[in-house]
Structures are given as C-alpha cells and as structure tokens.
Design brief:
alpha+beta, 3-stranded antiparallel sheet
Length: 97
C-alpha cells in the first residue's frame, strides 16, 4: 500500500464535492480516503493498476490538484505510458522535460 497526501480542492457546490468523491472512490486501486488537517490522505494498492492511475491523473488534473506525488506509482509495467515525456501530465508529475 502507498499513501499520498493531496490538497483537498475547493468545491463550488454540493454536487461538485459529490462528483469528486464519487470519481475518487470509484478507483479500483483506492483502499482508503482520510480527511486530515493537511489534506486528503489517499491509500492505494501498489503497484496501482493502469486504469486507476490514468483516472487519478485525470481527476487531479480536472480539480487542479498538484500531481507531483504520483511519481511514486511509476514502475516497469507502466513507465512506457505514464513516464512518457510527451504526455500532458509529465512535467507536473516528474518536474522536468
């Protein structure tokens, strides 16, 4: 298991918050969500499956949440697509080009 801490986004209405947590809790690899004073502690299976990782990248992008901590999920199985420098998330996750 791997836990990452992300800043909780600003929600603009009840449905916004409901959809965020619905999307998050729909990730197959997600095992636990805990609200803390620092943000949301998200615990995932590691290795994370490709679908969960791709959806997590999309969710964090949609809600403008920092994605730098996602680099812990890079492994030999997903590196060809996840760590490809031409993806829209590469710089925000890995920090260089």
């Amino acid at each position: 298991m791997t836990t990452i801490l992300v800043k909780e986004p600003q929600f603009y209405c009840y449905q916004d918050e409901k959809h965020f947590f619905g999307w998050l809790e729909g990730l197959k690899a997600l095992k636990k969500v805990k609200r803390t004073s620092e943000g949301l502690a998200l615990t995932f299976e590691n290795p994370i499956d490709d679908d969960s990782l791709a959806d997590l990248v999309g969710l964090l992008t949609r809600y403008r949440i920092d994605r730098k901590d996602l680099k812990v999920f890079r492994n030999e199985t997903n590196r060809k697509w996840f760590a490809r420098s031409r993806t829209y998330w590469y710089r925000s996750v890995f920090g260089h080009h």
